[in-house]
Glutamate--cysteine ligase
Amino acid sequence: MGLLSLGTPLDWDDAVPLAQHVRDHGVEQFLALWRHFRGRTGDTMSWGDELEYMIVALDRPHHAARLSLRQGEILSVLQNCAEVSKERSSPTFHPEYGRYMIESTPGKPFSADPSDLLRVEEDMRVRRMIIRKHLKENEIPMTLTSFPRLGVSDAPFTDPPFEPNGPASRSLFLPDDLINTHVRFPTLTANIRKRRGSKVRINVPIYHDENTARPFIDPTIPYDRNLFPEDSEAKLGAARPDSIYMDAMGFGMGCCCLQVTMQAEEILEARKLYDQLIPVTPLLLAVSAGSPLYRGYLADVDCRWNVISGAVDDRTNAERGEAPVKPDEPMHNSRTGPRRLRKSRYDSVDSYLHPDAPREDNDMALEIDPAVRDRLQAEGVDPLLAEHVAHLFVRDPLVIFSELIHQDDKESNDHFENLQSTNWQTMRFKPPPPGDRIGWRVEFRPMEIQLTDFENAAFSVFVVLLARAILHFRLNLYMPLSQVDVNMQRAQQRDAIHTQKFYFCNSWTSESKETVSRSIREYTLAQLFHGDGSEKMVGFVPLVHRYLDTLQLDEATRKQLNSYVDLVGERADGTLMTAATWMRRFVGSHPLYKHDSVISEELNYEVPPVHHG
């Protein structure tokens, strides 16, 4: 969701002169937190999930499913409700980017105790029940990664319907009216476009079915130059052949996901956990795949990641390497000036953090603000952590509130979070906020939302158990980050479970053992999750079961936890279909589908996830 502040957001032209002020004071705010909390130890392992729902309105007489834009009205009720038992705290509900989206979190963190892990599914079920209780009779809360007909032009896809002619996104397909009305969101949308110098360009490969045109040239793109000057971009090459073209932040930030945030005992444990989970992020992206449908078409990918990455890509042409750097190019950083930036600000991790990280595995060309690095190191921050923060701060702050320009850097972390919260990576390293209630945390961010509460509980519990097993057995999963990036692209491919192999280290030997020969090899997801038959690479599922063996659980508890672990394992080996494969096969076999890659309004209504809730 990011940082939601109250105030008056500055227009981009007014914000640019203040960008360096935000960076400078953001560094001082991080230093204040680091000085106060660097010696903090003894925090208990606690964690929480973030679930995102789409509110879908069913028009049953016309066989249509549309996105309900009543977020504000629904949240005004949900945020004041306390409809749970005495044994359970009230869950919390939050706004998200789309006015059809609601985020939920548990009322208080879970622990890693098995009895607490068994509460997760019921907690998720209660959250869905509470949301549904406060909806209209024809509305349902849906945990679906991407709405199949978001942005279509042949029929309304929102309730109520609006025309796509808003000044924030200037989209050919999406109305600004579906953006959360909090001033941060339309300002963020407009400023990404203004900083970039053009609308965002997202091209997802179309799935070529037997009746799909070759080449596929999207016939629904309205090349109307009278709407906005940028619309001519579509005709001039922004919309690529054989692709589903999308042109607004809402196509990415309008997707739903499942995230897990875990608190560590102290800073070094958090850094260790951050590092060891980085190689796992592409693998759980592939296993949780759930988004094969975009803008009314069947895509040739199964995951949302590159869609969101493109949706918030604010890099200029020069920064993307698509044009030479000009003397008058807007600077993303007044100290370093324009430069190439390899990635969108929503992408995979670029550097390991723990002091024990092998130098050769930190093999990414890390763009940093050298002044930030030097300032942090002068205060005693070690090089890896200093470069991590300096990498975040190479970006511009996208939304600055006039009321928050001047802050007490010892009491506030708003300037730091301004940049921290708009660097959306597969893992996020989270310092404690001001106050003494919360410790050092890591956020696991790649997974797609699942259709049922059981599945979302299974993936959440699996991540927590895997993290505990990694720490318990002191495993070493380091591998070159460049190969993690390759895995991220492979993870999004159609049916990656069966068609892709993934780079991974061949030995997970405990750090306490003698040095052994380690190398990077390619494995199927089945091998990575179930093992390759060797003791060195045991597989995630057996590893988690070994960890559970150490806890001496009663039979009922172990059986329930096994069901969660086994669900993830069966997705990884193909015994169970991913949500993406299941939806793809449903569409392909439905009598309304014409095998032309088109998801009609009536077919969209028939897709079973639309009726789940």
Summary: The chain has one domain: 6-283+297-454.
